[in-house]
Write a structure and sequence with these properties.
Blueprint lengths: L6 E8 L7 E10 L2 E9 L11 H7 L3 H4 L5 H12 L4 E3 L2 H15 L7 E4 H8 L7 H7 L10 H19 L4 H7 L5 E2 L6
Parallel strand pairs: 1-4, 4-5
Antiparallel strand pairs: 1-2, 2-3, 5-6
Helix pairs in contact: 5-7, 6-7, 7-8
Length: 194
């Protein structure tokens, strides 16, 4: 039933509470309902929001020295875009991930990707009856492995697997149908120079 279910899942980790302070990016690619690739990148956050906060470091264990030799967010962005291509995108709590991506592009003076995206957090709240809907809670409820919570690649993989599980539960064929099933539509991110 999920033969047209091809998309990418996206996750970011941030250096501090300021939107745009991306220090890690994860992507998982699903082709015809099967996760076929997962990758994560470290990067230096845009300089304007580049300081690291103790709380954030405590969550994801990424420090200034961890990213010191890494490319900047703007330099990493082409690799991310190449991996996603023209696939629709999901994120778990897309408001967070897409908001940070938008601000990081603004701070870096680069074009915002023209993605269509949906939110597995919102869809999970519609389809599942749980005590909480954080990524680790939804993954556990669906029997999805999340070994390294708050590592961007692992989180992207879990979001991808959640979307596939929700699509199977709903009996839908693609991401747009999953969005409609949950009373939403895929949102258009941008594609304009910031």
């Amino acid at each position: 039933m999920t033969d047209n279910l091809s998309f990418a899942a996206f996750d970011v980790e941030t250096a501090n509470p300021k939107h745009g302070s991306i220090c890690a990016i994860g992507v998982a690619v699903v082709h015809k309902g099967v996760r076929v690739a997962t990758h994560s990148w470290l990067c230096r956050p845009p300089a304007t929001v580049g300081e690291f906060a103790p709380r954030n470091m405590g969550i994801h264990k990424i420090t200034p020295s961890t990213v010191a030799g890494q490319p900047s967010f703007a330099q990493r962005l082409p690799e991310l875009l190449d991996m996603i291509g023209d696939l629709p995108v999901v994120a778990h709590n897309a408001v967070f991930d897409m908001g940070n991506l938008t601000r990081a592009c603004e701070f870096s003076g680069v074009m915002l990707p023209g993605w269509r995206y949906g939110c597995t957090y919102a869809w999970s709240k519609r389809q599942l009856l749980l005590g909480g809907y954080k990524l680790n809670q939804v993954a556990a409820a669906l029997g999805i492995t999340l070994d390294n919570y708050h590592e961007a690649g692992a989180d992207a993989a879990a979001a991808a697997d959640i979307a596939v599980a929700l699509a199977r539960m709903a009996g839908v064929r693609d991401l747009a149908d999953l969005a409609r099933f949950n009373g939403t539509r895929l949102t258009h991110l941008g594609g304009v120079r910031r």
